[in-house]
Amino acid sequence: MAIELSGWIDKHYGTPITDLPDVADPSDVPPAMVAEQLRSTWGLHQKPIKSMLALLERRGVRVFSLPAADREIDAFSFKYEGRPFVFLNTSKTAERTRFDLAHELGHLVLHEAANMNLSRQIEQEAHDFAASFLVPADGLYAQVVGKLRLDDVFKLKKYWKVSALAMVERLYRLEFISEWNRRQWLIELSERGFRTAEPDGMQPEPSKFLTDLFKLAREDGWTSRTIADQLQESEQDLDALVFGLAMAAVPGGGQKSPAVTGHLRIVR
């Protein structure tokens, strides 16, 4: 259904082209280095990524939400006719969803030619890519001065927009903290509820691409029903695929649409 919807989008609207780098032989380059190179190529420098979802959408990645029935899966990705697709479990915290997006980006960049058998090595490579892409080492080295306390983790995780647990792991991998600190802090964070949630966390990142798409479609006379009919699917299934934005885009749905960003244009 996502492939059919993507085809419908490309038929009616001009959209960002796919802009992912080619890694000829990723086995020769550590995933962290590939992540750093990609940050440089995309002009992200050593700053936090404002929105992982918007970043991937601008680079031509089609990101969709998983229906509730399929949410035993965190996320997955693939390419179809050159177009990368990512599917997200939206029941997770915003911080963990960002990490899932970076993780799937790692798969798309590193493992296109690999046998995607979800081996432990492949998953670890995508994990290392995601950690470096979201929290670049040089940026963290420039930021951290002196001995760290657990309270510093909360400041750093908000700055880089990652979970507290991911921040502790990143600090440990870069040798800012000891194994003892890591274990003690993870225990304390678990006791505070950070293992299953993210207290005082971020708001979910919205899909700017799909929001703008449905705004343009509505102005052109399309409704979720007519789009679903074109795809020979139900409105409910369409809505589950697009973060609930299809129903919100129906005239009279009570949601004010934001201004169009210019990433979409009508194809005549």
Describe, in short, the structure shown.
The chain is mainly α and 268 residues long. Helices cover 50% and strands 7% of the residues. Strand 3 and strand 4 form a beta hairpin.
Describe the structure.
By secondary structure, the protein is mainly alpha-helical. The chain has a domain at 138-191. 50% of the residues lie in helices and 7% in strands. It has helices spanning 2-12, 31-41, 52-58, 94-110, 120-134, 137-143, 150-160, 164-173, 179-191, 208-219, 224-231, 235-241, 245-248; strands at residues 13-14, 62-65, 75-80, 83-88, 265-266. It has a 3-stranded mixed beta sheet, sandwiched between helices. A two-stranded antiparallel ribbon has the order 1-5. Helix 2 packs parallel to helix 5. The longest helix has 17 residues, at 94-110. The protein is globular, with a radius of gyration of 20 Å. The relative contact order is 0.15. The model is unreliable at 252-262 (pLDDT under 50).
Give short descriptive properties of this protein.
268 residues; mainly alpha; 13 helices
